[in-house]
Amino acid sequence: MLYMRPSPPIPQFNIILGSLVNIKHYPTAISLSKQFESKGITPDIVTLSILINCFCHLGHVNFAFSVFAKILKMGYHPDIITFTTLIKGLCLRGQLRKALHFHDDAVAQGFRFNQVTYGTLVNGLCKTGETKAALELLKKIEGHSINPNVVMYSTIIDSLCKNNLFADACNLYSEMIVKKISPNVITFNSLMHGFCAMGHLKEAIALLNHMKLKNIKPTIHTFNILVDVSCKEGKMKEGKIVIAAMVKAGGKPDVVTYNTLMNGYCLVNEVKHANHIFNSMVQNGITPNVISYSIMIDGFCKKKMIDEAMNLLEEMKCKNMNPDTVTYNSLIDGMCKSGRIDYVWDLVDEMYDRGQPVNIITYSSLLDALCKNCHLDRAIALFKNMINRGIKPDKYTYTIIVDGLCKGGRLKIAQDFFQHLLIKGFHMTAPTYNAMINGLCKAGLFDKALALLSKMEEKGCMPNAITFEIIISALFEKNENDMAEKLLREMIARGLLQ
């Protein structure tokens, strides 16, 4: 086409570019447009709109606006699709303020947008946590004679539910009904998530019946939401009833359904049942994924069935499946807790070799095992290695290292370390203070233990029953009965002794 004389009309080239965009070959479409422009073939408004779409999908919003400037320079009039594409591009890049300013400028110049444009803005605002702004926009567009649709309402309801503003979500749902905007399956799925997050399983199931009354067909995702909350609450019987309802409604359980059920059985320590579900997946034509294997490996490790877990890891490798950090962390933690710490380092090396990042959970498992096996020098070296790698310790890591040093007779190092944390302003929780207080009490340093108890409260960390029990037990052991009884009375006054 490029070398035909005369050149084919520009719509012929646009058909090719449009086809490439449909199959998401955006760079190729851009490259071909450059080729025909270099041959003197002038793009039209359709060509330029296609290029804007390509640049926006590739995240090159600045280039997209350069093409927009070219449209204006060539005297073309951009349509609503062009404007909406640019707004979507800005939203995808998280540039919501720019998107809103661009919208306001266009409106000020007399341009009018449609439901698709406003749906894009609402979606962008919700995804960046600006749910309040999305609600304000919803009210604003009604003043522009644009009727908000079910997509906009559902997007905001979903965002409200995810932000634990469930009452607001219900109010917005009621507003939809009053305005005679029919909810769809996405609306109900979001509300179900909300009910489930609040622990209201019965109300969530009632929504399923409400959907049937409105002739809205639930999706597999709808049922999976209910299966998930049932299993997380340990209500395996209810979860299986939901799956039976799914099958009755013509749905087929997918890998998410099976994973959820397996995870539920593992949570209630019924690993054999979980393994049965895992084995039945293949028989029912469902291929287990990395999450499936990780759930079972974690379940086996928590029951200290390390050989079974390792067999699954080997099975994954045979199937060319890449175990992820979650998979390895489960195995490392299981091996550490089963006393197989010498074998753990091979797994850590394997993680590095496979490009799986070692994270704070990995380090915490290793530190805990080293401390409990009295390898304190190695634990200190590993802690320093973690810091050097830019991995920030969390409250569990601090507790592990302080407790390990105290119990291993390295009280001075534990004190220095703890003091360093206080000076640096780290927010420590009660278990970390308890570990340090326990170490001081074991060494008979009651004055320092009591001083740390006061410091704990000064720092806004309230002592718990364990804190008092540690000091009181140590005082009784050293026959410091008067002080022990005084603390016991204080413990009762605080309501910490049942």
From TrEMBL:
InterPro entries: PPR_rpt, TPR-like_helical_dom_sf. Signal peptide: none annotated. The keyword Repeat applies. PPR repeats lie at residues 44-78, 79-113, 114-148, 149-183, 184-218, 219-253, 254-288, 289-323, 324-358, 359-393, 394-428, 429-463, 464-498. It comes from the Eukaryota. Keywords: Repeat. PANTHER family: ATPASE EXPRESSION PROTEIN 3, PENTATRICOPEPTIDE (PPR) REPEAT PROTEIN. Belongs to the PPR family. P subfamily. This is Pentatricopeptide repeat-containing protein. The lineage of its organism: Eukaryota, Viridiplantae, Streptophyta, Embryophyta, Tracheophyta.
